Amino acid sequence: MDDLDTLRAKYLASVASASDEASLEDVRLAALGKKGEISLKMRDLGQMEPAQRQVAGAMLNVLKDEIDAALRAKKTALGDAALNERLRAEWLDVTLPSRGRRVGTIHPVSQVMDELTAIFADMGFAVAEGPQVESDWYNFDALNIPPEHPARQEHDTFFMNRAPGDDRPPHVLRTHTSPVQIRAMTEQGAPIRVIAPGRVYRMDMDQTHTPMFHQVEGLAIDRDISMANLKWTLEEFCRAFFEVQSVELRFRASHFPFTEPSAEVDIRCSWEGGQLKIGQGDKWMEILGSGMVHPKVLAAAGVDPTQWQGFAFGMGIDRIAMLKYGIPDLRAFFESDLRWLRHYGFAALDIPDLARGLSS
Ligand code: PHE
To answer: What is the pLDDT of residue 261?
Structure first.
């Protein structure tokens, strides 16, 4: 039966060339659908002689099965191809790091406070706190700055208002973190080792001064603490903080009413090409004030100066933040400019840790 061979060839070729499931379905309908060519031939069997029908019927069945099998095989193949194509097109590398969106940053001042807290904690210093609105006794008198003392004028103090008729001395916005020394010693007595980071206020405003800024106070009182311990502590701190192998500090004799002797401390640095390098070079940069706590200050805080002695220091946090992270203008610290914060801020989860590295 030549026409069956022709049909076979025709439909197997159509099956082979069907490029998607829709065109394959068209082929199936054309061959095996109700009005399909092969189905119609099956119907014709009814008009045949029984002997002829038997032969033709068997051959038609074989052809039908053959085309049906080809259709199924092709359908599976097309399905696999479609799946493979989808897998290829929708490919996603889940090993790629996600593109995280930073929701805010840690301000350099907070970062530096965390860094120095980590360093001093490692040396056995606890964190102490005090109020920003302070009585003039804590801010001045207890620190050996009596009312007529010229240092009171030098501090450019902000005074709080008293109610009319209230003649007591006004409270002040603390001009330094030193009052926290008094509070900590009064509460804890000696021996004591604390740092007190926090906000302080002075009426001053230019490129290197803002009316509000940050200091960290350090205090170590015990029976035999000396300037040598102060020097080691500060060197150790600077080495860790600036993340350099070695630092050199210069102690310059100075005067603070609350320490005796007193020293201002400079750190060796260079400014080559406008780039600050800490630890080497021929320049010195002042970074803090310090000294041995004055016996009158110990006494004011209830600590017996015949039994106890120790050192204190006060350092500008904003200043060391500018030095470490190369930030040129102090005023920008407190302008809440999002572009500045994104540029100089730190990722929220990078908590400074001496073992992992402070700033990385
Ligand atoms: N309180 C001083 C200041 O603000 C710094 C200081 C603290 C100096 C402790 C000596 C000891 O300038």
So the answer is: 98
Ligand 1 atom closest to residue 288's alpha carbon, by position in its atom list? 5
Report the atom number in ligand 1 closest to the C-alpha of 262. 10
pLDDT of res. 286? 93
**Which CATH number applies to 105-347?**
3.30.930.10
Would you list the domain boundaries of the chain? Answer: 2-89, 105-347
Q: Say how far apart CA 124 and CA 232 lie, in whole Å.
A: 14
Q: Which atom of ligand 1 is nearest to the CA of 215?
A: 4
The model carries a pTM of 0.71
Whether 102 has a pLDDT exceeding 80, the answer reads no
Best of 144, 180, 256, 290 for a ligand 1 pocket test (most atoms within 8 Å of beta carbon): 256
Q: Give the pairing of strands 259-270 and 277-278.
A: antiparallel
More confident call, 261 vs 154: 261
Distance 106 CA to ligand 1 centre (A): 27
